[in-house]
Amino acid sequence: xxxxxxxxxxxxxxxxxxxxxxxxxxxxxxxxxxxxxxxxxxxxxxxxxxxxxxxxxxxxxxxxxxxxxxxxxxxxxxxxxxxxxxxxxxxxxxxxxxxxxxxxxxxxxxxxxxxxxxxxxxxxxxxxxxxxxxxxxxxxxxxxxxxxxxxxxxxxxxxxxxxxxxxxxxxxxxxxxxxxxxxxxxxxxxxxxxxxxxxxxxxxxxxx
Length: 208
Fold this sequence. Notes:
mainly alpha; 10 helices; 0% strand
């Protein structure tokens, strides 16, 4: 029940389950600190697997060594109960924080993607985009890769290559003109990138 409550992020329900469980346990279970600590450790295992199913790594929130040191200080039932409730509160707060961050990340990456789609022919760099969205270069690189599965340069190159394929198949422009239209001033470099992306030279695409 506690596992389901945590996975569904129902804090109030989780608290009720803990508060109901502790008094109903036989007093003999609280006769030794080792028994209380075992309960805390069992709970840690339950939460670890619950969050794993949800795609959350508990070790990234609180590492096991820190949790173990906290558990070793548990000698009374009230301490055990308090540790469980504090752990649940910490975990759910972190999950909610990450979900909000993920939404902000997606919004930022969506803006970058829209900008690339409209300005792919320009000299775009990760540094320029980082300045536009008020993030560091490294942080934008991380969240862009997390959301799209591609680096900024990989995504930009893919967009340019797809645009180039379309223009080549239209047959209205020469290769050097297409290279310039998709953001490459160096035609040989464009051709090498195109072949790497499609497996054929730009001039050979129409022959297929």
